[in-house]
Amino acid sequence: MGAMKLGRVDDDDIAAADPDWSFDALVSELNALENNLSANSSTPPLHFHQTTSSRVNLSGRKEIEKGRRFVFRAPEYETDSEDDDDKALVVSDTGKHFTCDEIYLSDSDDSDVESALEVQPYLMNKVGEVEGALIELTHDHQLRVNDGIRNKISALEIALLNESQNSISSLLRVEKFKDTRQELDKKFDTQYQRQIAEALDNQLTAVQQDRELRSQIEERKIRSDAAYEEAKRKVALQEEKQQQEKAKAEAEAKLKAEEVKQAALEAEKKAVMEAKTKAAMEAEKRAAAEKNAVENSKTVTSGVTQETASSLLNTETKESSYVYRAAASASNIEHGRLQKLKELYERNQVVRSSSTQDYTRHESDISRNIRQIRGIRDNVRSKASELVKLLNDHQCPQSFSVEMLVKKVVLSCASPASAPFAIASVIVLITSQVPYVMDILLAELHTACLYTVPKHLVYKKSIFQSKEAYFRSIGYREDNGKLESTEDYLKRLESYMKVYGALVQTEIPNIQNLHGLQEGWAWLARLLNSLPANQYTAVSLNAFLQMAGFALFKRYKSQFLKMLNVISDKFLVDLKSQNIPESAKTTAYMQAYIEDKKFLQVPEGRNLQSNTLSSEYEP
């Protein structure tokens, strides 16, 4: 068996030794080991020499003691040759060495590691007990280090295994969360896509419905246009036929009109001669009456001229056996208006007798526009414009249109629910373009209500056979042989007077009122000077003041206040003295109107509205 050389001690093994050992302690420890070995073996002990070096090096690597180092050198374990020089174990200090050369464990180097371990007694005997103990200690230390390393490796493996398991568990949880999240996202995506699909379907449905609606509208429009064109064509044919018939009728009427015209001229000449004669006689009578009245009466107000005062004097004229009380000037004006109205009716009667034309539709259009008059500015303008167009319509003679118009207007004035200011505004707008309509309208109004003149019919038993006959004469209506009540008559009288009062005070920018505020002032003076105080005149005066009092005060100021004083001091006193129960309410209204100065307030409805919801417009 070959000898086995000592292997080199690793730095880790050297580091495992106690680094605080001194050299003396090491020598003593080695000597103790040597003694123990020598007691059990005959192998001569190894001798170690102590040097004076302050440093001991083990393999030249580890510093054992401060200022010293211990170096242990051993030959490398080689398998190639047994004759290589052996490395010495050296303890050095500044050039001094402790050596142990040629330490062999066996005579043969052909054995393997196991054989070498089996010759341990020879090796220990060969190298000594100290070195063997050192090797054993080194081996134990190495085993402990290996155990520690294995323990640490095992702990690290366990920790790594736990960490791996934790990582796997975390990865599983992450994967599970990822799958759950993906499932939720898929559900959300499905729901969102469903919502988008529903919204898109709704949109498409709405677009389809809109297209269908547009298509229906277009179809209706096409059908309407076709119907309109067809109706237009039929109307054109009908108008052409009517024009032909009209031309034929006009030609025939023209011939008849020429004959009637000749007869009318002769009758007119005769009537003019008679009128001149009658006028001259009436002028002489009026002059004599005015001369006597001027001497015995005084004027109502100092602001009225002598000419106006003389025209306001009381006169009694007998017409058709009736006795009227009215101012002479008012009677003359009324006579002139009634004459124009009579001429208009006669002219229309001649045309009707010579023509078979039907104007019912034209009359219904006029009536409809008058019924639709409201207290709105745009409505008033539009209705006035429509009525002017109807008056100027060439398909109907203007005299016919005027007659229809005045009759329908006066008929609408009889209703207490009428809008007096709106009707008055329409009248002013119409007469500004067709002036002669004003006199015809006032004449028709005088016929319906004699207090618009103003004029009062005096009751006398010698003239009237009964009260009913008198009532018929002043305008009471009769239905199936029965007269209306006084209350109904007074309501209708009040409605007529409200329209008349609204008419005289209506002022429209850039439009001339042919029967303006000066006519209202004259009416008030004539009534107070000429008419007696009774329930009819009281209702007329009260209604007129409600409508025109505000405008009269604005224009005449103190003169109007003097008129109110005359009403309060004379008219109302006379009215109260008669003790008429029906007049008590009217008297109270007039007294409150004067005492509360209601003439300072704008009458209700005077300011026309610009539309149904916005601000008002003052005509």
TrEMBL record:
- Report the subcellular localization: Nucleus, Nuclear pore complex
Name any one GO molecular function.
Answer: phospholipid binding
Which keywords belong to this entry?
Answer: Coiled coil, mRNA transport, Nuclear pore complex, Nucleus, Protein transport, Translocation, Transport
InterPro entries in alphabetical order: GLE1 (IPR012476), GLE1-like_sf (IPR038506)
Taken from the record, one Pfam family name reads: GLE1
Q: Which residues form a coiled coil?
A: 228-293
Give any single GO term for biological process: protein transport
Its GO CC terms are: cytoplasm; nuclear pore cytoplasmic filaments
User: Out of the domains of life, which is the source?
Assistant: Eukaryota
Q: Where are the transmembrane segments?
A: none
Similarity section: Belongs to the GLE1 family.
Protein name per UniProt: mRNA export factor GLE1
Please report the organism this UniProt entry assigns to the protein: Medicago truncatula (Barrel medic)
Q: What are the top taxonomic ranks of the organism? A: Eukaryota, Viridiplantae, Streptophyta, Embryophyta, Tracheophyta
